[in-house]
Amino acid sequence: MASSRTDPLTLDVIQLIGGVVARYHEEYDRAAATHALTGAQARVLGLLSLQPMPMRKVARKLKCEPSNITGIVDRLELRGLVERRPDPADRRVKLAAPTEEGIRMAEQLRDALDFAREPLAELSEAERTVLRDLLRRMLGEETA
């Protein structure tokens, strides 16, 4: 029998996911504030530290308007944490990329996120793999 959108289990899962997201954002905002960053600036910096990318792609990944990302990147650039550089694959495209200082700060931010890391550490590698794959499936992403 297919579950409806309002069955108790679905509602419980939705509430739990919402609670995890809220706690993650609260902790990210606290960690960001210790570096005089907003939560949004910290999330952009964290994403760029994984891989330089065009601002449109950053906006897509963070589910926000490209104009918002432009402003955030502008402020991160003024702080010396991010730079714009031509995309080697297409010089017409500008990539936002972290500076060395930006990479260090992104690492410090990640290290401060105990909430996200500690509960996951209690799961086995197999459980984390299943969780990752289920979350990717929920988001419509391909599993590796």
TrEMBL record:
<dbReference type="InterPro" id="IPR036390">
    <property type="entry name" value="WH_DNA-bd_sf"/>
</dbReference>
<dbReference type="InterPro" id="IPR039422">
    <property type="entry name" value="MarR/SlyA-like"/>
</dbReference>
<dbReference type="Pfam" id="PF01047">
    <property type="entry name" value="MarR"/>
</dbReference>
<keyword id="KW-0804">Transcription</keyword>
<dbReference type="InterPro" id="IPR036388">
    <property type="entry name" value="WH-like_DNA-bd_sf"/>
</dbReference>
<keyword id="KW-0238">DNA-binding</keyword>
<dbReference type="InterPro" id="IPR000835">
    <property type="entry name" value="HTH_MarR-typ"/>
</dbReference>
<feature type="domain" description="HTH marR-type">
    <location>
        <begin position="10"/>
        <end position="140"/>
    </location>
</feature>
<protein>
    <submittedName>
        <fullName>Regulatory protein MarR</fullName>
    </submittedName>
</protein>
<keyword id="KW-0805">Transcription regulation</keyword>
<dbReference type="GO" id="GO:0003700">
    <property type="term" value="F:DNA-binding transcription factor activity"/>
</dbReference>
<dbReference type="InterPro" id="IPR023187">
    <property type="entry name" value="Tscrpt_reg_MarR-type_CS"/>
</dbReference>
<dbReference type="GO" id="GO:0003677">
    <property type="term" value="F:DNA binding"/>
</dbReference>
<dbReference type="GO" id="GO:0006950">
    <property type="term" value="P:response to stress"/>
</dbReference>
